[in-house]
Amino acid sequence: MSDAPAVFIVDDDPSVRRATQRVMRAAGLEARTFASAREYLDGYDPNAPGCLVLDLSMPGLNGLELQHALASRGGEPVIVFMSGRADVPASVEAMKGGAVEFLVKPVDARTLLGAVQSALAKDRERRDARAGRERVARRLATLTPREMQVLRGVVSGKLNKQIAADLGTAEKTVKIQRARVMGKMEVRSVAELVQAVALAGS
Amino acid sequence: MTGFVVPAVWSIIAGACLAIAAAVAFKLGRRWASVQDRFGLVLEAASNGLIMVDATGCVVLANTRAARIFGCTREELRRRSIGTLLRGVRFDGRGTTALLAMAGGEVMGRRIDGSEFPLELGVTPIEASDGVAAVVSVIDLTERKRADELLERERAFLRQVIDTAPNVIFAKDRDGRFTLANRALAQLYGTSVENLIGRMDSDFNHDAAEVAAFRRDDLRVMDTRSELFLAEERVTDASGRMHYVQTVKRPIVGDDGIANQVLGVATDITARKEAELQLGLQRNQLAHLSRVTMLAELSGSMAHELNQPLTAILSNAQAALRFLEGGTATPEELRAILEDIVADDKRAGYVIQGLRLLLTKGEMKREPIEVNAIVQDVLRILHSDLLHVGVDANVDTGGGLPPVLGDRVQLQQVLLNLILNGCDAMARSDPARRELRVSTAAEDGYVRVCVADRGHGIAPEHADKIFQPFFTTKDHGFGMGLSICRNIVNTHGGRLWAVANDGGGTKFFFTLPADSREAA
Fold first, then answer.
1. A59 interaction partners in chain B (CB closer than 8 Å)
2. Between residues B84 and A87, the one the model is more confident about
3. In contact, B218 and B194? CB cutoff 8 Å
4. B321–chain A nearest CA distance, Å
5. What is the mean pLDDT of residues A105-132?
6. Across all residues in chain A, what is the average pLDDT?
7. Cα separation of B505 and B285, whole Å?
8. Mutation target vs A (from B299, B307, B311, B342; most A CBs, 10 A cutoff)
9. Is B253 on the interface with A (CB under 8 A)?
């Protein structure tokens, strides 16, 4: 697993595959090639950052089928589709499945690189978001059940007195527990806490 | 001529006999009675009617045959003037002169009952002591006349038959001169039947090659004394227009066993030939139309086929530019890129070439063709179309196939059509079952190609209709594909048929005869 994002090129045409890889390398991007959807699927690593440049029509699994197969494995690959024909139904399906771009061959290098750059950015965003979510989830996991109850109260905008009444405890106790929640969640304000919880719930 | 010579000779012989008999009788007077008996025997034995007349033209003696000719007895003939027996003979007392004037010719005889009939007359003047001045020989021509007329009628009838016949009928001798010709030949050569007799082909036909071919065939027929059938030969008519004829030539063998004449009958097949050519032309046009229609359907995948190399070329060139701009270009990298560009350009050219070939409009060619190469060509053309419809194509090309003689484009068309039909048939099949199998094999002097699909198959009630024009079960398509395919295969001397595929779908087979020239 590499931390540097890569462009994964899946195309059954060896010549197109090589040429696309060169375009990526010329732009300073790391590119890896796969001769078939199956080959890519077999070595698929959901944690590898990057995006897919995927040919639509290929023998065996075609581009759309690969998109479905990846989705069913819980992956969220960012895909730039390339197709020899302006196939409207296929492009609609691809975009619905989360494709960033549907390009018709022959594709200008600038257009392709533009699509790949925005795909990589989207992948980065997604990965960042996921990392944030995971961070919040990890922190939430450290809370005791009582602290979780306090957290719910705080997030729903209740005062300490109201929370204490709800839980049948002293306001002072709630105040201490509340400070502990803020500390464990590594937030300094209620606003930050709400944001973190919202992120985790998304 | 012979008809006149024979009785003349006979009358001379008969006359000579009589003269000898008379001379003998004169010299041997004593034995007269016996001589007269012999004389009577000679008279009766003659095959002609014989009448002896005296200087006044009176019948002295006649044989039974003569009496029968004139419809009476020998006695009734005796003493009668010869003038009453012949029309137009007047005796003026100058002996046999008038008779002699008529000798050797045909005159009208007059029977006792007054009826007249054609008669051939021979007269031999003799000198005899008993006053006999001439021996007249008579032959009744009634029967012969009737036979001659019959013959003439038959001849005229036959003449009419050969002149009415639309076929050219002729006979020629060893020198190539016409001994018989009918009106059809006269019309062809722009002359009359009479004018043809005794003349040669070269007098009317200015195409030396044709005349030489006729002559060669004529001599061959006479020399081998065997019939010759010419399925198709050319003959140029008087106006310079070319005709196609089918000719039978047969030797006319004489009693000596030698064939000195050749009889020929030629049927003009120009109209049929032109109709065939027209049909062939229409068939070619139809096949072309069908190809164009098919290509229109394929245009999407053809574009894709072109797009692949164009995409690679564009990307390679742009990558090279970026490497150069970024100062990261290495000669090795640039060389690899340029090599790929060259290869892809060639690949694009190949696609266009294939397209252009299929769009070619023209007459059917006959050249040696490797069937397996046709299969590969067609699968290359259909590559992206098969991908598009999700059909998995398996090829099983047999080894050691003999070449076939045919038209590459048309054979590609047949295969294209069958494969596209197979794909259409599987359009609604389970994607996992969209399998198409193309196989080739050598079989008894033929190459057999099979296209098997796993589609919906052919409904039994459609089995005998699918090859008919304008029959289709598809929403699109004009129902000509299979009809044209069968036509193409038939024209190549092969067969096209369909059977159900075991386990669903249809198998189309076609055979093409191996190029026998190659095998020889």
1. 387, 392
2. B84
3. no
4. 9
5. 92
6. 89
7. 31
8. B311
9. no
Please list every residue in chain A whose beta carbon sits closer than 8 Å to the beta carbon of residue B328. 26
Contacts of B305 in chain A (CB under 8 A): 84
Task: Find the residue in A nearest to B308 (Cα).
Answer: A16
pLDDT tens for each residue of B87-115: 876 665 555 667 777 777 788 888 989 89
Residue A162 Cα distances to A167, A169, A170, A182, A195, angstroms: 9, 10, 10, 18, 22
Size of interface A-B (CB pairs under 8 A): 92
List of E strands, chain A: 6-10, 30-34, 50-55, 79-83, 101-104
Distance (Å, whole) CA B237 – CA B221: 24
Comparing C-alpha atoms, which of B117, B132, B139, B149 is closest to residue B8?
B139
ipTM of the complex: 0.78
Strands B178-181 and B496-500: unpaired
A23–B contact, CB cutoff 8 A: yes
CB B492 within 8 A of CB B446: no
| Eight-class DSSP state of B140 | E
- Distance, in Å, from the CA atom of A40 to the CA atom of A30, rounded to the nearest integer, reads 16
- A9–B contact, CB cutoff 8 A: no
Sheet containing B228-236: give its strands across.
B178-181, B168-173, B259-268, B242-253, B228-236
Residue B376 gets the label, from left (phi > 0), alpha (psi -120 to 50) or beta, of: alpha
Contact in structure between B45 and B10 (CB atoms under 8 Å): no
Q: Give the closest-approach CA distance of B481 to chain A in angstroms.
A: 26
DSSP B467-480: TSTT---SSSS-S-
| Interchain CB contact of B344 with A (< 8 Å) | yes
| B310 in contact with A, Cβ within 8 Å | yes
The Cα–Cα gap between B182 and B162 comes to 6
